[in-house]
Automatic annotation (TrEMBL), chain A:
PANTHER family: DNAJ HOMOLOG SUBFAMILY C MEMBER 2
InterPro entries from the UniProt entry: DnaJ_domain (IPR001623), DnaJ_domain_CS (IPR018253), J_dom_sf (IPR036869), RAC_head (IPR032003), RAC_head_sf (IPR042569), ZUO1-like_ZHD (IPR054076), Zuotin/DnaJC2 (IPR044634), Zuotin_N (IPR058871)
UniProt organism field: Aspergillus mulundensis
Protein name: J domain-containing protein
One Pfam family linked to the record: DnaJ
GO cellular component: cytosol
Automatic annotation (TrEMBL), chain B:
PANTHER family (UniProt xref): HEAT SHOCK PROTEIN PDR13, HSC70CB, ISOFORM G-RELATED
Keywords, comma-separated and alphabetical: ATP-binding, Nucleotide-binding, Stress response
Pfam families documented for this protein: HSP70
Skewed-composition ranges (Basic and acidic residues): 474-488
Record bears the keyword ATP-binding: yes
Name by which UniProt lists this protein: Heat shock protein
Disordered: annotated span: 474-510
GO annotation, cellular component aspect: cytosol; nucleus
Biased composition (Acidic residues): 489-506
One example GO MF annotation: ATP-dependent protein folding chaperone
Length: 449, 563
């Protein structure tokens, strides 16, 4: 798109008299555009979509795309070769290849067993480009020493063959992570995980079963932790120790010697394998012993059992206490009730007496009242019959009336004083009331009619 | 690192062209070229037919052979039924195979697809899934890798319901539809992705002449981006129309000899159809083709030959219909044959030499007719859309699904397109000439760069950027003075028709300046130098114009504000 199309026409010369600021003059505007749907197909459309979505202009987009391309190639150039070469390593002799660190020779010591076959291939190419004997000769290096080049070739031979690479990986001590000390891992709750995780990550490379369960963290569930330790106690390792074998002599002359060496190697391998299994077991034991989570789970389990027992006891105690309390309360209540009844009785007695006294007094008032008005005698001494009839009536009223009415009657009589008519009136009214209330029969009274 | 196994990387996508009569699968081979994959039987055009006998499924050519003996359990021509309701479908193509029936809101077929005698009702979506599953299987077998994604081509008139139904059917077949692309655009992409192709602005007519239907589309290709300007469809015109002519020809010949009409017998008709189609295809390659059918009718074996001239004579009318469709679509886009830069013939019928020849005679010399009979380097027309789909699949298979969705969103695809061409006006003496730099229908924003010569002696030059429009100039080569008489298009078409037996008139495209936009001066250009002009148009119709001498330091810059 950015390439210019060359059009074979000649531009006209500037007409005389044409002038403009900065040699540019806008003289018109574009006519309106139509909206249409682009077909979302093809590389140029994708570029258009990219520009539109990221709001880039043509030149911006070109620049960004170009930068992305450049970055990619640079990364390719840089990744492996960035590792420095140890001058001691450059002096190595290819003869003792068994003791050389093949990954370091290829500059892959950061990746080690994680390096992919493709990385090995590329790393080899880079190293060869640098250390090829012809290159050295071209640089004017006189000595014909191509030993490091041979080291590179040997390293590639080992690492590019899956079987040989496994054998080397099995004994690649540089990839091992030493288990941390007890003290270090107990320093803080976090340090246990921080220090042990890389140990298991490095050991996990020998597992035939992938992926390997992770150590997890302090929040792991019981199942996760259980699963982790079960896995490691039943670890299925592909680790082999052929790499450490003694060289078997291949001359045909000494067959016994050869067999002897082979037998020795087989035994050594077996021994190492057993040792390795024991080592791993020991390592997992150590880890489990230091694992706070296991202790926590046990404590939690125990706490769970204790809790039930304690709860039961507490419940029994609570019930007993409640019973005792209920009993005491009941007793108290009984006592209170008795006392209250006694007091009531006494009070009633007193009231009764008082009422009796009041009634007596009132009755006296009644009798007094008739006496005061001289038994309603008109004049002179009342006749015995009149006195008797009046008193009979008063007694009758006294018998028929209750205490309160008696009190009110006494009050009214007191108010009437010695006015015979008024007293008689009060009595007559009282009789009427009593008759109306049905307490006395008409005609029962003789005098107050 | 080397192993990138993120979600998008695990996708393995192919291109599928899913047609009514046949389907194709394509991929990008390690050399980066699109390649159509042959299925187990070696077919690159796999008939879209499924057939069932005793619970066993047959697909492709094997299923097609079943059309004769087992037509009621053979499903064919079902693509157009997908996502439609029973009322709106045309069941004619299925006359000789399982008939479509209505179930719920969709179309289905009643076929015995299991070992039991009772027929099952199988929906068209299910049939499509089975078909796509077979295509996927063929591709996976060929490539040795599980194919799990695809770009599928659809006709331009596929509606949303049909698209959804197809996507769902593909999903059920284990294919992630990355994108559905239009068949004509896929064909254009297949041509434009050839290594020798350059990105130019052009107007393309894609004629997709299929087995049962034909479509045509006008596509504006501007800076590699495609815009469909118009489409035309003919749902009855296709290879089957030509087959019918061949069938009728042989049937008449048979009646003459044996006094029975083989077309009256269903099996005879099926045999005749099958062989007739093969004969018609053979005529695209050779000048003679034979037809021989055992026991065509009443146990009579039949054999005959037909030559191409006879066939072309008989089919003249149908051929004219094909080219008529092309002319129709150009008219619909309000264009003229002179505007068309390229005609792409796609679909099986495009192999027919005569159709391309007729098209050749319609279009002017400069128009490229991309069909096998007119251009030796033409891509096999049957493979075009599958190839286009494969190219698109390779472009987007690395993308995240969300990225694809965002990219094909109307927010991105709906863009303003230039209504008038923008170019530079040249005045030399009295003659005024206009050369377009940005053509009409260019999607905005757009940027174009061009280099122009300067006068031999150098010095100051003047650039005038204008809007222009094209006109059709008709010149009658009369012996006297050349009379120029611009006409409207309709008139021209008529006059074109009339003047067939008279002397031919010369029609050409001329550009006329409509309105100046900006004027620039580049001063002090060296002799034999060149001036580079860059025009950048924003989506809001604002312009930035830069002109400078090639290799020079200073540039003249200016902006024209949006209207």
């Amino acid at each position: 798109m950015s390439s210019a199309q060359v059009i074979d026409v000649t531009l006209p010369a500037l007409p005389a008299g044409w002038a403009a600021d900065k040699d540019f003059k806008a003289v018109g505007k574009l006519s309106a555009a139509t909206q249409r749907n682009l077909e979302p197909v093809g590389p140029h459309f994708l570029a258009h979509a990219r520009r539109k979505r990221h709001h880039r202009t043509f030149s911006e987009d070109e620049r960004i795309q170009a930068q992305q391309n450049v970055k990619k190639t640079e990364e390719d150039e840089n990744d492996e070769i960035s590792e420095d070469e140890d001058p001691m390593m450059l002096q190595r002799d290819a003869k003792d290849w068994k003791s050389q660190d093949h990954y370091a020779v290829l500059g892959l010591s950061k990746h080690r067993w994680r390096a992919t076959p493709d990385m090995v291939k590329r790393a080899h190419r880079k190293k060869v480009l640098r250390h090829h004997p012809d290159k050295k000769a071209a640089l004017g290096d006189r000595d014909e020493n191509d030993s490091f080049f041979k080291c590179i070739q040997k390293a590639t031979e080992v690492l590019s063959d899956p079987v040989k690479r496994r054998q080397f990986d099995s004994v690649d001590e540089a990839a091992d992570v030493e288990p941390p000390s007890k003290k270090a891992s107990q320093k803080s709750p976090q340090s246990f995980f921080k220090l042990w995780r890389p140990v298991f990550e490095s050991e996990a490379r020998f597992s035939k079963i992938q992926p390997v369960p992770q150590l997890g963290d302090e929040n792991s569930t019981f199942e996760e932790v259980n699963n982790f330790y079960n896995f490691w106690y039943n670890f299925d390792s592909w680790r082999t120790f052929e790499y450490l074998d003694e060289d078997v002599p291949d001359d045909n002359e000494n067959r016994d010697q050869k067999r002897h060496v082979e037998k020795k190697n087989a035994n050594a391998r077996r021994k190492r394998k057993t040792e390795d299994t024991a080592r791993l077991r020991h390592l997992v034991d150590d880890c489990a012993a230091l694992d706070e989570r296991i202790k926590n789970f046990r404590k939690a389990a125990r706490a769970g059992k204790d809790k039930k027992r304690l709860e039961k006891e507490a419940e029994a105690k609570r019930i007993a206490e409640e019973k005792e309390k209920a009993r005491l309360e009941e007793e108290q209540r009984k006592k209170d009730a008795e006392e209250a009844a006694k007091a009531d009785r006494e009070k009633a007695k007193k009231a009764k007496e008082a009422a009796k006294n009041a009634a007596k007094k009132n009755k006296r008032v009644l009798k007094g009242s008739v006496k005061d008005v001289n038994y309603f005698a008109e004049s002179g001494e009342p006749s015995a019959a009149q006195v008797d009839s009046v008193l009979t009536d008063v007694d009758l009223i006294n018998a028929k009336i209750d205490n309160e009415e008696l009190a009110s009657l006494a009050e009214r009589l007191t108010a009437a004083g010695k006015d015979a008519a008024a007293v008689k009136n009060v009595y007559t009214e009282e009789i009427k009331r009593l008759v109306a209330a049905g307490k006395a029969k008409e005609g029962e009274v003789k005098f107050f009619n | 690192m080397s192993d990138e196994t993120n979600g998008a990387g695990e996708r393995f996508a192919i291109g599928i062209s899913f047609g009514n009569s046949s389907s194709s699968i394509a991929r990008i081979n390690p050399e980066g070229k699109a390649e159509v994959i042959a299925n187990e039987e070696g077919d690159r055009q796999i008939p879209s037919i499924l057939s069932y006998i005793g619970g066993e499924q047959y697909h492709g050519t094997q299923a097609k052979a079943q059309l004769i003996r087992n037509s009621e359990n053979t499903v064919a021509y079902f693509r157009d039924y997908l996502g439609k309701d029973f009322k709106s479908i045309d069941p004619t193509p299925c006359h000789n195979s399982a008939h479509p029936i209505q179930t719920d809101s969709t179309v289905a077929f009643s076929i015995r697809d299991t070992e039991s005698e009772t027929p099952n009702t199988v929906t068209v979506s299910e049939i499509t899934t089975r078909h796509l599953l077979r295509l996927k299987q063929s591709a996976s077998d060929y490539l040795g890798k599980e194919v799990n994604a695809a770009v599928i081509t659809v006709p331009t008139d596929f509606n949303d319901a049909q698209r959804e139904a197809l996507t769902a059917a593909a999903k059920a077949a284990g294919l992630d539809v990355l994108q559905l692309i239009h068949e004509p655009v896929a064909a254009a992409l297949a041509y434009d992705a050839r290594p020798e192709a350059t990105v130019t602005d052009k107007l393309t007519v894609v004629a997709d002449l299929g087995g049962t239907r034909s479509d045509a589309a006008v596509i504006a290709s501007r800076g590699g981006m495609y815009t469909i300007l118009a489409t035309a469809h003919d749902y009855e015109l296709g290879g089957s129309s030509l087959d019918q002519i061949v069938i009728d020809h042989f049937a008449k010949e048979f009646i003459k000899k044996h006094k029975t009409d083989p077309r009256e017998n269903a099996r005879g008709l099926a045999k005749l159809k099958m062989e007739g189609e093969a004969t018609r295809k053979a005529l695209s390659l050779g000048t003679n083709a034979t037809l021989s059918i055992e026991s065509l009718a009443d146990g009579i074996d039949y054999g005959s030959t037909i030559n191409r001239t006879r066939y072309e004579l008989l089919s003249n009318k149908v051929f004219a219909q094909f080219t008529g469709l092309i002319e129709q679509v150009i008219k619909k886009a309000e264009l003229d044959v002179l505007d068309i830069d390229e005609v792409i013939f796609s679909g099986g019928v495009s192999h027919t030499p005569k159709i391309a020849q007729i098209a050749r005679s319609i279009f002017p010399e400069k128009t490229q007719i991309l069909a096998p009979s007119t251009l030796t380097s033409a891509i096999n027309p049957s493979e075009l859309s599958a190839r286009g789909a494969a190219i698109q699949a390779s472009l987007i298979q690395e993308f995240e699904t969300e990225d694809i969705e965002q990219s094909i969103h109307p927010m991105v695809t709906a863009t303003p397109h230039l209504n008038k061409a923008i170019g530079v006006e040249f005045t030399s003496g009295d003659a005024v000439e206009f050369l377009p730099l940005l053509n009409t229908q260019t999607a905005l924003p757009a940027r174009r760069v061009a280099q122009y010569n300067v006068p031999a002696e150098g010095g100051d030059v003047f650039i005038r950027v204008c809007e222009g429009s094209r006109e059709i100039k008709v010149t009658k080569p009369e012996p006297k003075a050349k009379e120029e008489k611009p006409k409207t298009e309709d008139d021209e078409d008529d006059s074109d028709f009339d003047s067939d037996d008279e002397e031919e008139e010369i029609r050409e495209v001329v550009w006329k300046t409509e309105q100046p936009i900006a004027e620039l001066a580049v001063k002090g250009v060296k002799a034999k130098g060149k001036v580079e002009l860059m025009i950048h148009i924003n989506a809001d119709l604002g312009l930035q114009i830069t002109a400078r001498e090639v290799g020079g330091q200073s540039a003249v810059r200016g902006a024209v504000e949006s209207p």
